[in-house]
Amino acid sequence: MCGRYVSPDDAAIEREFNLVRFEWTFPPSFNVAPTQNVPIIRWVEGRPQGACIRWGLIPFFAKGEPPKYSCINARIETVESAASYRGPWKRGQRCLQLATGFYEWHTDEHGRKAPYYIHLNDQPLFAFAGLWDRSIKPDGTAIDSCVHITMPANELMTHVHNAGNNPHRMPAILKREDHERWLHGSLEEARAALNPYDAGLMVAYEVTGKVNSPKNNSPSNIEPVPAAAWRP
Fold first, then answer.
1. Considering the entire predicted model, what is its pTM?
2. What is the distance, to the nearest Å, from the Cα of residue 203 to the centroid of all Cα atoms in its chain?
């Protein structure tokens, strides 16, 4: 389960994806938490479009009310069949949920639990494979929200992510060349883009426990503490 991550600012996204400038302005966040608005890219009227929407899917049938269960991660095993996700999956409501890194928690041989920061060495700004949906409140207000897909961990993440209720999982991170087919390819093409990221292109290291609280949002969150980096 990926419950915290680091997101880029508006200018970095526009440079990376060659977007026409949108009416959005936001700084990077070093401790993104569920229910916050996060930057995504989705396919609208034949072109990529950026938006900031709620992280934590509110299904279209929920009338704008967040469900009692968590909808921040959609398991790849059930994304095509689970009630909350099968609608946006079948409708092709896919998005890129944008990040520069993410956190997972590791328990060592002494039972000490600590956060680790994971990033890529081939994509400084990357995308989780996400879905989005729109739910309408009784007063007519529309709420757009998103969820990203998780899958069984690769070799690196199996070592790192061994804590919590859903260990040995990782977010579905897209290769750069798969962005377009995820956004507007067929269902078969999109499904084929969902693969564990190459462990050799990922780096993880321990960071300060400050990230345990979303109130702590600082570049110092991703500074390594004295510890050896995990590499496969």
1. 0.94
2. 17
